[in-house]
User: Fold this.
Amino acid sequence: MNPRKIEILLLERKPFGLRFVDLLGTTIRALVAPRNSFDKLLKREEMRKAGVYVLYGEPPEKNLPLVYVGEADILGERLPAHRSKDFWTDIIVFTALGETLDKAGVRYIESVLIERIQRDKLVDVENDAKPRIKTLSEANMAVMNDFIEHVVVLLLVLGYKILRSSEDEVEQPVPRLHISKDVISAFGRNTDEGFLVYANSKARKKLLASASPTVTKLQKALVERGIMKDLGTHLVFTQDYLFSSASLAASLILGRSANGLIEWRTKDNKTLKQLQEN
Assistant:
């Protein structure tokens, strides 16, 4: 991926207040606001345009963050309806500096984002139903797909890890790593976003005493959400899954406290730590 320049303006002169973020060289603009800056956001000129938005929160009773994805042809008319949703703490709005977006375009973007977020399962989705993907011309679809990738980049830069970037899929190949212990046989790779464990990897079912409460809660959540399937003697991943760190991935797979830098190894037995030191 080529270098990219991002410009952030703190509209309230504080790091976590209302701010806008531009990915230079593109038309996309993100506006980010905590809940207590919502009224100031609604007064922005950008709210007269079409766009997509994400409501983000981390409810204490949830194992994972909760998000809602929406779209509007006039953002300022749609967004006030979400005051009644009490789960969210942050709102991230995406629009275009020009006239790139229209109703069909934002519906398409919303549909694809929800589909990708539901596929990656890094967060829970508050939307009641998945919208149907709006049919666009081939040319307009290409423009909207570029916009979607810019949305993903800005979300990740801003620290909202709600879906995986597709960028690492086209980067240089990285070493395939594994853990093999008894019935446990797991494979994955280290990425800039975290540690990706591959589908069909096997994990310990019964956790050992050294497993942390975080691992216990996460195992329960992944089984409940179908990301891991109980096969009786062990658990198996039904899809690729991104962990925040190599150690969290190793701990969940081994069912105990584990150092991912040591546990994850290449086929010629080099540890992840050795790879990072080279």
